[in-house]
Amino acid sequence: MVVKQRCSWVRQPLNQFHDFEWAVPVTTEEELFCLLALQIWQSGLSMTVLLRKRAALCQTFHYFDPQWLRVTNEDTLLAKLDDDRLIRNRRKLFAIWHNAFALQRLHQQHLTLSQLLWQQHKPTAFKVATEIPRYDESGLTVAAQLKQADFQFMGPTNCYALLATAGVLNLHLTSCWRYPIIQEAQSRITTAFASS
Fold first, then answer.
1. pTM tops 0.70
2. Which long-range contacts (CB under 8 A, 24 or more apart) does 59-63 make?
């Protein structure tokens, strides 16, 4: 049996996430906003903790549907934090709620989250995990753009991680079996953007 080589940082229970979710390109506003919200929940925590809590978070908060968030009042949202299955952080929750309104304002300016993020696509070819920075110019750029658009909790580290999770940047190591698959998927998306 052939063993597929993964990125060196991957250990159980992250295998499934690495193999089927991480860096898979995402372009829809709803999915990108959900990833943005989950990135905020993860801030300061490990990916393992987030994955353990993710299903409950998504179920409780309607997969962070921006429209649902905008019509839900603060007290209703806050009451949901009584659930011990969740990451219970009031500041993060209100940042996500606030960001649903920021997204609406962004759309009113005829801009999209997808545009802002995918403008940062570029080729990557990291051979070892130590080459991957905490953030780079793309993370700084997105953080500045989102801050200007009044998004909260989106510094350069969070934004760089969002770009990686959403597949805008392929941070799989070149030796990883997922690297060429993600590259190919990115190419299809950037070609589609170029022709639209």
1. yes
2. 60/85, 60/86, 61/37, 61/96, 63/30, 63/34
